[in-house]
UniProtKB/TrEMBL annotation:
This is Signal transduction protein. Residues 406-644 form the EAL domain. It holds the Pfam family GGDEF. CDD domains: EAL. It comes from the Bacteria. One of its GO terms (molecular function) is cyclic-guanylate-specific phosphodiesterase activity. Residues 173-225 form the HAMP domain. Keywords: Membrane, Transmembrane, Transmembrane helix. InterPro entries: Cyclic-di-GMP_PDE-like (IPR050706), EAL_dom (IPR001633), EAL_sf (IPR035919), GGDEF_dom (IPR000160), HAMP_dom (IPR003660), LapD_MoxY_N (IPR032244), LapD_MoxY_peri_C (IPR042461), Nucleotide_cyclase (IPR029787).
Length: 644
């Protein structure tokens, strides 16, 4: 019950007590007044009756006495009239049972006892006592008057009480309105949203409460901001190159291994390797500051090209080497973009050094076709860079895919996706504390290749992206998942949505509508890659609200590696996050990784967000995850994906 309702109940209780006491006092006073009226009425009647009956009583004229008494008694105001002679012998007695009107309830009669007094009058005639007259008024009259007065009092009380309660309620709500703001602040604070009240109430007690709440909000916001800054600083120190701001060697290799060797979901693309020819000589020619500016220019050019890839891998792998894994597969487009980078860097070098003209950098490109490993791909890219250096040309590209075979594969993938000819595999996400506890199964889309062998998403996903069929693929996967959830309501499935689907609000509305048919919508989990969340934050917020209203769970995949940080958690507030496998791969051997993962888990748990670890392969990793209080784990330690 709200404080306003409690205060209203208290006021009403006081009013009821007050009116009860008032009604009691008024009733008692009215009762005494009515009894006095009955006494006065009975005394007057006895007096007047005595004056009239005195000669008849002396003569003992019973007929006249009876006629007179009957005439008065029939008026209905009397319960008994007795006429006795001087020897107290009855001359005439007239009485009637004590009748009370039906309008007066019995409980009222039993509650209030009224006994009318019997009034007497001695009658004399010619200075001799003729007898005595006894008159008792009817009690029903008093009950009727008293009940009518109580009814009117109660009716006015109810009407005035309702009117008073209405105005008191308005007044209390106005006075206590700042407490609603405090309640909103507390609820928002639990979700890491910081709201301060601008309107400070004039009431001293409420003013102190609002000021104290505002102060607490500021302190908590400062605390969380400092915590986020500290974790960001840890991430920059452990995984970021100080000069360029790109991923450092260790982080770059981990991400490259994750995408190519483990997840294998990048699709076809190219690894671009940029090497500064002789950094020591460059430092001598330009000086350290200008040489650093040239390195920054190289990193900036690769960053600009990386914007054309949805989830690129970009980093500095040595003091003179930078790489970019891009999903650009069109040779002409790639040649055009790299030539533009080469020209811009040559112009930059000329501006820094006006006197010397020489080849200062070389770019090598190796095509990735989902078959080789990350180490092989990097070796090929370095070989291409060496070829460019030997040929004294700034750029050399290797392309191993023929246009004809590429066109055939594109057509094959397009037919499969358009016709919905896909099947699903699933991998469990298990509780870290209990290996047998399954949190959900993440599902993966698969198609048959041209030889009718199953192929992983990485082998065809880039083609799907190029053909703008990602939304169609997501819809087919979701249809299969929803069918399975309807057949098996105890199953919980996680579906990863693409960037294209997240941007398509019509698709999001379709998903909400389709999921409404599920017996348990909470058994469907929608996951979105962290990069997609950051690139479409406003759409994701709207989508997240709709999922929450429908009871569908929401998670962020590949969490913790984006340079933009994780402050978005405070607004998106997912149900769970999946820490990227590149942070888990060396967890059992890297104290830096353990410290960073612990920080991420602490932030997530402070927001009531569950944490899962991706790509767990060894028991030693699992033991450390248990120590770090990670909630769930996913990886080959629990088995490879199997057909759903």
């Amino acid at each position: 019950m709200s404080i306003v309702n409690q205060l209203m109940a208290a006021v009403l209780a006081v009013l009821i007590g007050l009116v009860s006491g008032t009604v009691y006092l008024m009733s008692d006073s009215s009762k005494e007044m009515l009894i006095h009226q009955l006494e006065s009425h009975g005394q007057d009647t006895a007096t007047h009756l005595g004056l009239y009956l005195a000669p008849y009583m002396a003569e003992r004229d019973l007929a006249s006495i009876e006629t007179t008494v009957n005439a008065i008694f029939d008026s209905g105001f009397y319960q008994q009239i007795r006429v006795v002679d001087a020897n107290n012998q009855p001359l005439f007695v007239k009485n009637t049972p004590a009748k009370i009107s039906e309008s007066v309830p019995d409980w009222f009669v039993n509650l209030v006892e009224i006994t009318p007094p019997e009034m007497t009058r001695e009658i004399t005639n010619q200075w001799q006592k003729a007898g005595t007259i006894f008159v008792q008024s009817r009690a029903g009259y008093a009950y009727e008057q008293l009940w009518r007065g109580a009814e009117n009092t109660f009716a006015w009380f109810v009407m005035l009480s309702l009117l008073s309660m209405f105005f008191i309620s308005l007044l209390m709500r106005y006075i206590l309105n700042p407490l609603k703001g405090v309640e909103k602040q507390a609820l928002a604070l639990s979700q890491q949203k910081y709201i301060e009240q601008d309107n400070i109430p004039g009431t001293r007690e409420l003013k102190q409460v609002v000021l104290a709440m505002n102060m607490m909000v500021r302190r908590v916001r400062t605390m969380f901001d400092e915590q986020a800054k500290n974790i960001e600083e840890i991430r920059r120190t452990a995984y970021q190159d100080d000069l360029t701001g790109l991923a450092n060697q260790r982080a770059t290799f981990n991400q490259l291994n994750e995408r190519i060797d483990y997840r294998r979901d990048f699709g076809a693309g190219n690894l671009i390797h940029l090497q500064i020819a002789d950094l020591q000589q460059l430092n001598k020619e330009l000086g350290l500051e200008k040489a650093n500016n040239f390195i920054l220019a190289c990193a900036g050019q690769l960053k600009e090209l990386a914007r054309q890839t949805e989830e690129p891998v970009i980093g500095r792998i040595s003091i003179s080497e930078l790489i970019l894994l891009s999903d650009i597969t069109d040779p002409d487009q790639l040649q055009k973009e790299l030539s533009k980078i080469a020209n811009n860097l040559q112009d930059c070098y000329r501006q820094l050094n006006n006197t010397i003209e020489r080849s200062i950098f070389f770019i090598g490109v190796s095509a990735y076709d989902e078959q080789g490993s990350s180490k092989e791909l990097l070796v090929k890219a370095r070989q291409a860079t060496e070829k460019a250096c030997n040929d004294n040309t700034p750029l050399f590209c290797q392309n191993t895919t023929s246009p004809e075979s590429q066109a055939n594969w594109h057509q094959h993938v397009s037919n499969k996706i358009v016709s919905g000819d896909i099947f699903l595999q699933a991998q469990p996400v298990r509780e870290v504390a209990d290996h047998n506890g399954v949190l959900h199964h993440e599902i993966y889309a698969r198609i048959l290749n041209q030889d009718n062998h199953p192929c992983m998403a990485g082998e065809f996903i880039s083609v799907v992206k190029q053909l703008n069929l990602m939304t169609a693929l997501d819809k087919s996967v979701l249809n299969l998942a929803l069918e399975r959830l309807i057949k098996d309501p105890d199953l919980t499935l996680g579906v990863n949505l693409s960037n294209d689907s997240v941007r398509d609000m019509d698709f999001c509305d379709w998903l909400i509508s389709a999921a409404s048919t599920l017996p348990q919508p909470g058994h469907l989990c929608i996951e979105i890659n962290e990069t997609s969340v950051l690139n479409n934050l406003s759409q994701v917020n709207l989508f997240r609200d709709k999922l929450k209203q429908s009871g569908i769970r929401f998670g962020v995949d590949n969490f913790g590696i984006n340079p933009a940080g994780f402050s978005y958690l405070y607004t998106v507030h997912p149900d769970y996050i999946k820490i990227d496998g590149s942070l888990i791969r060396e967890l059992d051997s890297s104290a830096e990784d353990r410290f960073f993962v612990r920080s991420l888990v602490t932030v997530a748990h402070s927001l009531d967000i569950m944490t899962y670890a991706e790509h767990v392969e060894r028991d030693s990793q699992l033991n450390h995850l248990r120590q770090l209080e990670v909630d769930g784990s996913q990886g080959w330690i629990h088995g490879k994906p199997e057909q759903l």
